[in-house]
Design a protein that fits this description.
With 206 residues, this protein is of the alpha/beta class. Helices cover 51% and strands 14% of the residues. It is built from 9 helices and 6 strands.
Length: 206
Amino acid sequence: GKKKNKLALMQELALGCTDDMPLIGMVTRLTGQKGLNLVEQVVPEMMLNRRFAMAILGSGEAHYEHFFSWLQHRYPDRVCFYRGFNNKLAHMIEAGSDMFLMPSLFEPCGLNQMYSLRYGSVPIVRRTGGLADSVQQFDPSTGKGNGIVFNDYNAPALGWAINYALDLYTEKATWRKLVRNGMAMDYSWQKQGQIYVDLFRRLTGR
């Protein structure tokens, strides 16, 4: 279903790229917490050197809104920025993107990375807070892990993470394994709630 969802998203956003081009999604508040200053430093130059497209949905600080508007104007066939919130489009981006970018400075919980895993959109995240709890670095040699994780909060680290994801995307069998690992994760309340119940029973000796 990924290709079908991706084509529907590209049509909805009037992106002129081909469906074999990696598509990176972002659905986020446009604030400094979300690591957008790193995106500013990395993405414009990377757009010149790598083949990928972006779909961004969000609103917030004017500086970041202007940046994504400029990026769309600079690459109208490869970048779409939707200013504001649209629940239907948010789900379409999660379902249609190949990768989902969350380079947060801090993230106490985070939900979008878990949505992404279920939708088969590989999360690219910084190792912090809830992102570190739910996304594990993929290792092609073992086939374990469900996303791309970088540690340091700086532009080179984010650049490495995006480049690594784009390189993995070209290895189709490896990429399918990574996607399926993510889709197999279960962060539902049915499972998480049982973990709490089991913990309480151990603590009370029952």
